[in-house]
Amino acid sequence: MVAPGQFANKIDELLGKDDKTRKILTIAVVAIIIATIAGVLIFVPMNPTDNYETGVATLQDLLSSKSERTPITPNALVVSDSSPNYAMIGTPIAMYYEEGSSEPKMCPLLVMNSNDPSYAVTRFLNLYRNPDVVTIGDVSLNSPSILFRSNQTFSQIGPKAVSLATAKGFWASSDGVIIVEMQKKKSIVGYEEAVVAVAMASYLNIPVIFTDVVD
User: Of 26, 28, 91, 119, which sees the most CB atoms within 10 A?
Assistant: First the structure.
C-alpha cells in the first residue's frame, strides 16, 4: 500500500516528465473522473455548433474545451458556510489551470460564518491584509474583528443565482459549464459526485452552475 505522501510525490514525478507522459496521465485522470460523476454532472457547451446534440460529454469534449477569464482576480475568496454549494462554486474560481500551463493559479478559499466567524478565519484575513477579497453567498466582513472590507461581493439569493452571477463575473468566455442538479446532490452519493465534478471544473477552468431541474 502506498502512503498518501508517496502517492503525491509519484504524481509530481510523472507530471515533471515529457509532454507525452503528462498527456497520458491527464487523459487517465479525466477518464476516471468522468466515470465517477456521470450521474450528477452535465457538461454543456456555451457555444454549441449547429450539429451539436445534447447528451453525455465525451472525453474529447472535455479535454478540448477552452475558456477565458475576466480581469477579476481575487487574492482571497471568502464563501458563506450556509450551504456547501458556495464552496463548490468558489473552488474553480480560487484554483484553476490556464490553457497550456501545468501550474495552477491559486488564491486562498475560506468558508466563514458571518454571525460567528471563527478565530482562524478572522486571524488569517487580518494578517493577510489584502484588499482584493471577493465574497460569495451571504457573507459579511463587517464584524469588528475583521479589519478590512471586500472589494466585490456576489450575494444573490441562493446558490443558483450566485453561481450564474459568478460565471458571468469571472469568465469572459467558456466552451462549457458544469451543471450540478441540486436534487441529485441531496443524497450522500450525489454530494460526493458533485465534489468530484468541481475538481473537474478547476482542471478545465470552467464555471460550476447549480440548478433545481435540468430539462
Answer: 91
CB 82 within 8 A of CB 203: no
The arrangement of strands across the sheet holding 109-112 comes to 109-112, 76-80, 133-136, 152-154
pTM score above 0.85: no
Among candidate residues 104, 116, 98, 107, the one with its CA nearest the CA of residue 135: 107
129-152: average pLDDT: 71
pLDDT (average), residues 156-179: 87
Structural domain boundaries in the chain: 4-211
Furthest CA-CA distance within the chain:
56
Tally of CB atoms within 10 A around 184? 16
Q: With the C-alpha atoms ordered 125, 129, 134, 140, is the resulting torsion angle positive or negative? A: positive
Q: Which residue has the cell 471563527?
A: 118
pLDDT in tens, 28-62: 555 555 545 544 455 555 555 544 455 556 666 66
Question: How far apart are the C-alpha atoms of 64 and 85, rounded to whole Å?
Answer: 27
